[in-house]
Structures are given as structure tokens and as C-alpha cells.
Fold this protein.
Amino acid sequence: MNKLRKQYLPFVRAGVQNLIAYRMNFLGFIIGGLIYCFVMYYLWKSVFMASGGDTFMNFTMTDMVLYLFLSNVAGEVTFSSVSNDIAEEIKDGSIAMRLIKPVNTDLSYLATELGGTAMRTVTFAFPVIIALEIYRYVTLGRVMFNPVNLLLFLLSIVLAYLVAFRVNLCFGFMAFYVKNLWGMGILKNSIVNFLSGSLIPLAFMPDWLRTALEYMPFASMSYTPVMIYMGKYDTNEILFRLGIQAVWAVIIYGISKIIWLGAIKKLSVQGG
Amino acid sequence: MISVNNLRKEFKKVIKDPGLKGAIKALFRPKHEIIAAVDNISFEVEKGEVLGFIGPNGAGKSTVIKMLTGILTPTSGSCTINGKNPTVDRKKYVKEIGVVFGQRTQLWWDLPLVETYTVLKEIYEIGEDKFRKRMEFLNEVLELEDFIKSPVRTLSLGQRMRADIAASMLHSPKVLFLDEPTIGLDVVVKDNIRRAIMKINKEEQTTVVLTTHDISDIELLCDRIVMIDHGKNVYDGSLRELKKNYGQMRELTFEADPASNLTVKDFRKNLKLNDDDLIIKNDKNVFSIRFNSDSMPVGDMLNYTLSCTKVKDIAVKDADIEEIIRRLYKEGADKSE
Amino acid sequence: MRRALKIYRILVAQNLKRLMEYKADFLTGAVSFLIDQAIGIAFIFIIFSQIPQLAGFTFEQIVFIYGFSQIPKGLDHLLTDNLWCVGYFIVRKGDFDKYLTRPVNPLFHVIAETFQIDAVGELVVGICLMIYAAPSAGLYITPLSVILFILVIPFSALIYTAIKITTAAVAFWIKSSGFIIQMVYGMNEFAKYPTTIYSNFVRLIVTFIIPFAFTGYYPCVYFLTGENPLFNIGCTVLISVIFFGISLAVWHKGISAYESAGS
């Protein structure tokens, strides 16, 4: 364990240094995300008004606010720049430097990400959650905070992170094959946003689509933890959803390994 | 042609303590410091002259070049080239200069080299006839023929540098700025590029200002050198003069008889020279002694050496320019302290 | 001006040649933006499956606003995409040197160098949506409104460009301003929907501070209702000219603060 810590600490440190060097970018993305939340907030507010009722497809406006911002929190916590990093390293050839180091490549990427993830969790996720609880208290007039839900949410979001990290890893490996990864990135983000329910709650979609999407890995990346926190699932369902997340974490892990093996072969060909 | 008066450029720099802690501190309470990268530098360059602009890393050479080429705006002072001020009439001004930054390319990376030239032809408004003649000339001097149809990204460093020089020469500039034009190149390519620069200078009376760390560039190309350190002028004059003033260093190399067990300490012991005037290196039995011939004449040094040990082989060399520059840098550093 | 056009044509031609080398990339880029847009529409569609109208606008009218807002965005994206690179790395890496040593306006040069064909995705979607929505959106069609329609689009696009120039130019002082462009540009989300759904404060911002409302909602109000052309169209033109002027001033100030990079 100590050896592991020693070996990967430099990667963690590099990640944190990088984060500090680009702290303004970090801030920019967070604020950009919040702006988006507010646009959506106003949009939903007027949708609620137009629909004339207190609830819209079983969501109250308070639920909607919670859902919007928690999806954003889930997005920030599971955010990973690993695909860009890999693409960059493949482009400038520095991936070779990573390969010759006596460490597990995936883990070294994970270690580099840790600092940023911790930073986003502490400086963004927790304050937003606290703010949401205050909001909930003010609008509903009673404390709704449920520590058990928070803990389950944290567990679920760790699983969500593992799924998202692997998905991004796989996506990054595509840089071995495609040059315009930037355009693909836009595509990936909008597809993930849609399929994971961060754009529209999956609950609002037609039943057949919702059921299908709930079983896909994308729901595991955002929808499941958010719904758990909001208390929309009962105990059995929570266990079931966590199970699905775990299964996807394993499957995507396997897929990323397979792609990596293929990509590595390609690398040696390019190196010639 | 070029006239630089009290040129000064300040940069604001964030002071960062080392390590993670320092970085975090800088995140919340950044401390600033104003640094004069170029500190009141003045010099003149005549038409047709090749000026070597030298100095240690971080001395401010590139900053001066960037001000001369209109990239940076001076904090104070002025530079005029051919009567024009780079930051005031930038568009007219840059038509008269050519710039090559050795570490950077201005060629279109993904396209065949020749495409870059056709684009530059339009940008610099070069007529069809003139362009053709110009390409012929550059082709002859820089031998672009072999790779002019290849995409730039596939060129070797040497080819790329030749291509970049050609790109900067396309519009027949009156002044050519070359920032480290031979960096990272092998000897043959370096030689090729030097010859090209000489030829361009001779045939077109192009004024050339070049920065370099390669002493041979200076010895072969430059009529005059300006040396700066810590942003200040340290030396301005011809190479010959420099050699005369600072060229007293000699290098004596010999191979001692292994039986004599000569050590550096023994050798130094009886010489009353200070450290600047005597530098000794040895590798097993081969000794290399740099000494100031003003403090100790060459004959005396030879006699002394022979009295110390039996030598198998012995040779004395003149100071090379590298040595002179090293001493000059040192002097500059002492002065500024 | 003629010379500028010629240089522009040549630089764009170079760009297209490069694109031809990476055809697959062009396709992925354009298709990506197309699908991105399609998802945006799916979103509106799902919302409207539950409510008859939003802030007094029918589904078709909202689709029209959405479609219209993609045109200036797409045009700006097509023509000035390189400004992102200025903010993200051209200044930081010192690559801006190149533009300053050429006898061409650096802003023009930097913009002309990239012709971002990915934007076709936005333009195609925008046009299709407008065509789809036009028959039932109850457009206000007069000779004048048709002329104004054509006239206002470049000015709306210029608002995007001005905002990008200003925010990209910040990099001259702080080295990398990608995040600022990202942040401010992200506010174009507000342009897609009627500004009446926002709070007064937000409306004030997207009208006068970061005036994206003039790239979608306001001009569309005129095309949909014929109301208040002086504000809806006139202010679009005025705001775009003012912001463009400011952006040029900031840019020029920025160039003299440029510090290049390296030794």
C-alpha cells in the first residue's frame, strides 16, 4: 500500500499543480455549468407555469431545482479530462513517456485526476448541496435533509465516477484513430447529457425509452445518484440501481482494457 | 539602418515559492514583481552589416529582437529601423523585415511547403514575375527543390529551418532577424545555413541581426557583436577587438607520464595565479590547462610544465571565442552585483 | 478591401485543402454539431408534449426562435473559430508572434486562417428548423421584414464575434483566457428562449451586458409579431456595432500588452 502511495503520489501532485496552473479554466467551467443550470431553471419555471399545475410529471418545482443542480454536481464530480489528456499525449508523442514508466497506465491517469476531483467535490459539490438544502428548507418550510440518502449518494457517485472515468478513457483512446477528437467530444457530451438524463430527467421520457435508458451505462453516470439523493427510490430499488452501477463499472473496465490492447498495437506500428 | 535608443521592457512577474505550498499560496495571494528584461539598451546597426546578438540564456536577447520586430511594445525608449517605428506603422514596417524564430515555424504545418510561399506571396503583395525570380534565387541558395512539394510536418528540422528562412526572405526584406537559426541542427546543416545567410547578405546587402549560442555562427558570420546580460549592454564592438582585449587566454594540453603521478593539486601548488586566470581539467593523465598569458607568459608555463613531469605529448592553443565570451559573461555578472 | 478579400480567399483555400486531407474529421465535426442540435430540439419537443405554449409562444414559434438563433451562431462559428485558439493557446504559447510580423491586420489574419466547416451542422439545423416552423409560426411577412431579416443576421453574428474578440483579447494580459470565452460564450444559451421567462436581472444582462438576446429572441419577436422594429431590429444593429467597436479597442490595447513567450 505504501509502495502504491509512493509510486502514484507524483501523479497526484502533477494533477494538482496542473489544476492550480489552470485554476481559472477550472473556475470558468464551473461558472459556465452554473449559467446553464440557471437557463434551465428559468425554462422549467416557465414550463411549470405554462402547465398550470404544481407538479409536472410527478416533479415539483423544488424537485426540478434539486434535479438540475444535482445533475450539475454529478457532472462536475464525475468530470474527467482524461480523454483530452490522452489525445494530447498521443498527438505530441509524450504518451511514450507514460508507457515507459513502471506504473499501471490507467492508474496513473486516475491518480492525475484525483486532485481535481477532490477539489471540485470540496469547493463546488458540497457548497451546492448545502445551498440546495437551504433552498429546500426555505421553499418547503421544513428540513428535508436525509443523511442516509447523502451517504448512499456518495457511494453511488463513486460508482458513477468509475463508470465515467472508464468511458472517458475509452473515448480518449479513440485519438489513436480519429484526429478531430474535439468535434467528437461535443458529440459525446451532448449524447451523454441526453442519455444520462442531465438534460431532461429520464422520468419525463416515454416509458419504453426511460426503462431502456435506465439500464444503460449513462444513467449510472448521473441519473442514479441524483435520484437516490432526492429520495425517489425505495430501499430495494436503491440496492438494485447500485448493483447496476457496479455491473457497468466492471463491464466498462473490461472494454477499456480491450480497447487499450488494440490501441497499444497501433502505437507500436506508428512508432515504427 | 537600425537605431536602438535606451530600449527598456518590463514584465510583471508572479513570485512563486517552490513546491505545492508555494503554488497554493500564489493561488490566493499572488505577489508581483516588476522585472526589467531589457534595461536601457542602445546600439546601431549599419546597412549590410551582420550583427551577432549574444548573451547567456535569459539575458533578454529575444525580448530585444521581439521589440525590434514589432511583436512587443517597449516600456520606454525607442527603436527605429529604416526610419520607421515598428509599433507605430507596423504594417508598413514589417514589409521591410524578415523574421525567423528557430524554435517556431511560420509555415503552414499540414500543407506542402510550396503552398506557404504562394500564401505569403499574396500577403506580401509580391508580383508574379518577382515571385518566380525570387523562388529561383532562394531555391539556389537554400536548396529547397527536394522537399518543396512535401507537407511541412514531414520535413526534417534542417529542411524546415531552410524553408523558414526562405519564407522570411521571400519579400526581399532589408533587414533579416534570425533568432537562433542553427539551434538543434547538425554540423552539415548548420554549415549550409550559414553559407546561405552569407550569400544573402553579400548579394542583397541585407542587414542581418542574429542571436545564437553557437560560437561558430559568430566567428563565421558576424562583423560585429553586441553582447547583453541581465538586460544590459555588456559589449559592443568587432570580434577582432574582442579577441585582442580578451584573447590572452591560452590552452595548454599535455599527456603526463603515468609514472610521475602528477595531480592537479601538485600542478597548481607552485603557480601563483588566481582562479580566473588558471583553470585546470584532467582526465587520467591528460591535462588541459587554461591560463592567462598576461599573468604568465606561454614560455614560462611550458618550462614549468616540463619541470613538473615527463610529458608524452604537448600542445598550446589560442583562446577560442567561447572562452572569451565566458569571461565576458562573468565580468558582466560581477559588474551587476 | 479587395486585397483583404483576396488574402481571405487564399487563406480559406489553404484551409479547405487541409480539410481535404482529413475528410473524416470534417464529417465527424459537422455530424457532431448536427446531432448536438438534434438533441436540443428533442428537448424542446419533449417539453412541448406536455404544455401548449411557453411564455405565450407556440411550439412552432419557439422552434423558429431556436432555429434563427443558430444562424448567427453558426456564421460566427464558421468564420471566426480561431479566436478560441487565441484565448486558449496562441497567445500563451507565443504563437501570436507570427501574426505581428506580417503586413496584414493581425485580427483579420488570425480570423481568416480558420474556416470552421463544423459550423455547417448549426447552419443546416437552423435553416431546416426555420423552414419547418415558418408555415405555422404565423410569421409577419412584408417586403420590409424580409429585407430586415437578411440585414439583421450579419449584425447578430457580429455580436458573437465581438464578444469572442473581447474575451479572447483578455489573453494578452492574462496569457490564457479560454475559460472567459467559454463562460461568456456559454451565455448564448439564453438566446434560444424568450427573454420574458427570465428574471429582470438576467434579462438586463443578456440584453445590455452580454447581449446574446439580440442574436435570437429580439429579432425573432419582430419577425413573429411585427412589433417594435425600432428596438428589436434597430437595437440589434446598434448594439452589435457598439460591441464590435469596443472589442476592437480592447484588442488593440491587448496587442500592446502582448508579452510573447519563451526566452
Residues 42-243 of chain B form a domain with the Rossmann fold fold (CATH 3.40.50.300). Chain B touches chain C through 34 residues (CB under 8 Å). The first strand of chain B starts at residue 2 and ends at 15.
